[in-house]
């Protein structure tokens, strides 16, 4: 799935991956029970392959600073427009930075880097403490997922935490994206440099008509916590 594929999807409005409501994992792992509000001042969440995810807006409204990376300008501009956020543009290296500063309505700073995830350097992730990977790793075919996990390893400092959400289904039953990612693969790619904890796994096929129509017989959503060694 090269960038051209995704740019075309955004141009044609084929964005079935975009969720019109918050991802349930988000509240479960980032809300009050998990992280007290006063602790969030020190936290900055990186959202790789972020699209125009509503989850970023929720994070910003709920005390987290947000940094995204996305290759489609349509997605990035839509995100700021949909939430009526004023933004400035800063050209820097491989990226155009879209920045909405913290405001007096309680929203923390949101910055989206327009460009290629694979061009990021550790310096771009300065201040990042958390990574929220929803529909990012699973958006990529297997050979790119290996590159993606290697890049993730290079980008992170010890102690950085990732919430990784995957889907697992019989890959022979339909083609991706999203691609099926097994627990074996997550452990194979990450366990050398990360502590890998499986948090929850649930069959969500009954809630996913798109997968039912594609003839998929089981669809397991799994959340992992990865901590960089
Ligand atoms: C399946 S979508 C998921 C978007 C978002 N995470 C969400 O939950 O709605 C994958 C996104 O990654 C973007 N993308 C794909 N390859 C990319 C790359 N190499 N660099 C930056 N963005 C990329 C696509 O444009 C698309 O918006």
Layout of strands and helices, then pairs:
Blueprint: H1 3-12, H2 24-30, E1 44-47, H3 54-61, E2 65-70, H4 73-82, E3 88-92, E4 95-100, E5 110-114, E6 130-134, H5 142-155, E7 161-168, H6 183-190, E8 194-203, H7 209-213, E9 220-228
Parallel strand pairs: 1-2, 1-6, 2-5, 6-7
Antiparallel strand pairs: 3-4, 4-5, 7-9, 8-9
Residues 3, 6, 17-18, 49-51, 53, 69-72, 75, 116-118, 134-136, 139 line the site of S-adenosylmethionine.
Mind explaining what this structure looks like?
This protein has 229 residues and is of the alpha/beta class. It has 2 domains: 1-11 and 20-133, Rossmann fold; 135-229, Vaccinia Virus protein VP39 (Rossmann fold, 3-Layer(aba) Sandwich). It has helices at 3-12, 24-30, 54-61, 73-82, 142-155, 183-190, 209-213; strands at 44-47, 65-70, 88-92, 95-100, 110-114, 130-134, 161-168, 194-203, 220-228. A 9-stranded mixed sheet has the order 3-4-5-2-1-6-7-9-8, with helices on both faces. The model has no long low-confidence stretch (mean pLDDT 96). The structure holds S-adenosylmethionine (SAM). S-adenosylmethionine is lined by residues 3, 6, 17-18, 49-51, 53, 69-72, 75, 116-118, 134-136, 139.
| Annotated CATH topology of the largest domain | Rossmann fold
Query: Tell me, what is the CATH class of the largest domain?
Result: Alpha Beta
Strand order of the largest sheet: 3-4-5-2-1-6-7-9-8
Quickly count the helices: 7
Largest beta-sheet details: 9 strands, mixed
Gross geometry: globular
CATH homologous superfamily name of the largest domain? Vaccinia Virus protein VP39
Helix content: 25-40%
Relative strand content:
25-35%
Instruction: Supply the number of structural domains.
Output: 2
- How many whole angstroms does the radius of gyration measure? 17 Å
Structural class: alpha/beta
Which architecture of the largest domain per CATH?
A: 3-Layer(aba) Sandwich
How many beta-strand segments? 9
> Distance between termini?
29 Å
């Amino acid at each position: 799935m090269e960038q051209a594929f995704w740019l075309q999807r955004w141009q044609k409005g084929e964005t079935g991956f975009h969720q019109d409501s918050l991802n349930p994992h988000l509240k479960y792992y980032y809300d009050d029970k998990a992280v007290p509000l006063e602790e969030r001042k020190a936290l900055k969440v990186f959202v790789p392959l972020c699209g125009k995810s509503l989850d970023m807006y929720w994070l910003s409204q709920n005390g987290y600073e947000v940094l995204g990376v996305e290759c489609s300008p349509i997605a990035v501009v839509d995100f700021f427009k949909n939430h009526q956020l004023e933004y400035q543009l800063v050209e820097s290296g491989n990226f155009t930075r879209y920045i909405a500063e913290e405001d007096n309505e309680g929203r923390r700073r949101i910055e989206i880097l327009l460009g290629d995830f694979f061009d990021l350097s550790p310096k771009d992730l300065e201040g990042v403490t958390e990574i929220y990977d929803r529909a990012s790793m699973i958006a990529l075919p297997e050979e790119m997922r290996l590159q993606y996990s290697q890049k993730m390893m290079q980008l992170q400092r010890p102690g950085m935490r990732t919430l990784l959400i995957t889907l697992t289904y019989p890959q022979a039953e339909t083609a991706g994206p999203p691609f099926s990612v097994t627990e074996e693969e997550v452990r194979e790619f990450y366990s050398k440099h990360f502590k890998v904890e499986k948090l929850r796994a649930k069959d969500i096929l009954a809630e996913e008509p798109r997968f039912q129509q594609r003839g998929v017989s089981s669809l397991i959503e799994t959340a992992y916590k990865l901590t960089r060694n």
